[in-house]
Amino acid sequence: MAQIDYYFSTLSPFAYLAGPRFSEIASRHGAEVVYKPLDIMALFPRTGGTPPAQRHASRMQYRAEDLPRQARKAGLDLNLKPAHWPTNGAPSSYAIIAAQKAGGGDIGALVFALLRATWAEEKDIAEDAVIREALTGAGFDASLADSGLLVGAETYAANLEEAVNRGVFGSPFWITESGQRFWGQDRLEDLDLHLSGKL
Description:
Blueprint: E1 3-8, H1 13-28, E2 32-37, H2 40-46, H3 57-74, H4 90-102, H5 107-119, H6 128-137, H7 149-165, E3 173-176, E4 181-183, H8 188-195
Parallel strand pairs: 1-2
Antiparallel strand pairs: 1-3, 3-4
Helix pairs in contact: 1-3, 1-5, 4-5, 4-7, 5-6
């Protein structure tokens, strides 16, 4: 079984736009996905990136044009200026880490539910009630929101260090077992072709 390491931020609109398409691709190829949420705001300065608020106006204008286009292309609702963004991405990331460790639910559905909560549902994913709802909806025990906070914090920090060391610089970012790297939701087709042995 192929393994894909998936580095992403629960604050990333581009991870949201990857949506269920990535889960479908991984499932089709029988790939095991290791979800590795990380602090994107800490990743940017360490890998030559710039947080959105500090980017040149021309880049932000393009982002404002392109995100809605990509959302329409993916068939997803998108609020370009969500009420609760940016927020603290750590609590939702800890819940994902705890859920992945516990098993028994659909981790891909959990990740997408949290991303959708920010980018389409005007919810604050730093709030306990929002995290619990996402956990329950994906088939996990809501109490995972309260458990393993220390392990979650340690893993969240370790994911960042690992990402920097492996050449990750944005979200979403996938690394296959063979070491091939794919950055951005617009590279999902390439990832699919690679897993098919065609690229």
